[in-house]
Amino acid sequence: MADFLYRLGRLAFRRRWYVALVWAAVLAAVGLGAAKAPGAADEEFSMPGIESQKAFDLLEERFPGTTADGATARVVFVAPGGEKVTAAENKAAVEAAVAELGDGSQVASASDPFTSGAVSQDGTTAYATVTYQVTPTDLTDASRTHLEDALHQAQESGLTVEAGGDAVSEEGGAGGAAEVIGVAIAAVVLLVTFGSLAAAGLPLLTALIGVGVSMATILALASTLGLSTTTGTLAMMLGLAVGIDYALFVVSRYREERARGLAPHDAVALATGTAGSAVVFAGLTVVIALAGLSVVGIPMLTKMGLAAAGAVVVAVLIALTLVPALLGFWPNAVLSRKARRTGRTEDTAQDNGGTRWARFVLRRPLPVLLLGVVGLGALAVPMTDLQLGMPGDEAKSTSTTERRAYDALAEGFGPGFNGPLTVVVDAQGAGDPQTAVEGVAKEIGGTDGVVSVSPARFNEAGDTAVLAVVPATAPTDEKTKELVSTIRGERPAVESGTGATFEVTGTTALNIDISDKVQSALVPYLVVVVGLAVILLLVVFRSVLVPLKAALGFLLSVLAALGAVVVVFQQGHGAELFGVDQTGPIMSLMPIFLVGIVFGLAMDYEVFLVSRMREAYVHGESPAQAVTSGFRHSARVVVAAALIMIAVFAGFIGESDSMIKMIGFGLASAVLLDAFVVRMAIVPAVLALLGDRAWWLPAWLDRILPRVDVEGEGLSRPAPTHDAPAEKEVARA
Question: Global pTM?
Answer without folding.
Answer: 0.78
